[in-house]
User: What shape does this take?
Amino acid sequence: MKADYLKGQTVWVSGASSGLGKAIAKAFVQAGCHVAAGARSYRQEEGTQGETGLKLYLDVTNAESVARFKEKAVSAFGAPDVLINCAGILTLAPFETYTLEEIHQVMDTDFYGMVRMCKAAIGPMREKGGGKIVCLSSINGLLGIPYQGAYTAAKHAVEGFAECLAMEVKPFGIQVMLIEPGDHRSGASMYRRHGAGVTRSPLYHPSFENVTQTISHDETHGSDPDRLGRKLAALVGRRRLPMRRCIASPGQKAAVVLHGLLPGRLFSTLIAAYYHTYRR
Ligand SMILES: NC(=O)c1ccc[n+]([C@@H]2O[C@H](COP(=O)([O-])OP(=O)(O)OC[C@H]3O[C@@H](n4cnc5c(N)ncnc54)[C@H](OP(=O)(O)O)[C@@H]3O)[C@@H](O)[C@H]2O)c1
Assistant: This one.
């Protein structure tokens, strides 16, 4: 069923130039979809077809860029059947050294960027009679990790936003699904930036190094993004989508369950120990 059902469907993917977005766009192209693939680094290749589909320049932090992406995608393939929100950045820093601009940039990309894309897609989907919206959250949408405050806040916002949206647009035949990935080998470590102030402040050393090394190790040894892409294509190919799907290692799934079960301080102590947060 699933691949056949997807054949000929129009799919928009934000953040399609790297990592999970790239793998997802490729999986939908392979399933026979018309994919409008958006990213900032597609500026030079604008309008060309590749393994991720039709490459279009897209900056989700810029409303005009989102409007231009929509215009070009609709003119190429018509209204979207599926929107997959993958565009994201992660800036690591202790809260004390994060600048407000850095926090704002993460929120503007990971949360407001998703909001802009949903606003662009919902009207055409409703007029078409339905559609599917996939929001890339994270394990960090469900629990916190030190030095990922801005990212974790953005992903918690994504979780709440998507739950509300799902109820509002269901009567129009639009389904909303959250994907909560654990560590996957993403395309570009350049997106895992360290806040500018962290190198200037000795206050959180060596704790910050311990945590970022653990994060880097877990991502390097993480799951295969192409596998997630194929899983997501199979899920979206279903008639009815689940509200959320956590695609993570058994250990990470266990952490999510324990987060709901254990007293908060005990859980935080275990997470801090895993990341060697207090080791001096
Ligand atoms: N990898 C993981 O382990 C993991 C785990 C949990 C959740 N996730 C989520 O999955 C999504 C993809 O993560 P990833 O690790 O695969 O990322 P990645 O390899 O770092 O790629 C990020 C993508 O987002 C795009 N992007 C960034 N800012 C953008 C903007 N302003 N406008 C449009 N596109 C923008 C980048 O393209 P350009 O720079 O070309 O614009 C790139 O294609 C994110 O939402 C992330 O939070 C990933």
Observations:
- The pocket of NAP is lined by residues 14-21, 39-41, 58-61, 86-89, 109, 113, 136, 138, 181, 183-184, 186-188, 191, 219, 222 (CB under 6 Å).
- The beta strands are 10-14, 34-39, 49-50, 53-57, 82-85, 90-92, 131-136, 174-181, 192-194, 244-247.
- The domain at 2-274 is CATH 3.40.50.720 (Rossmann fold).
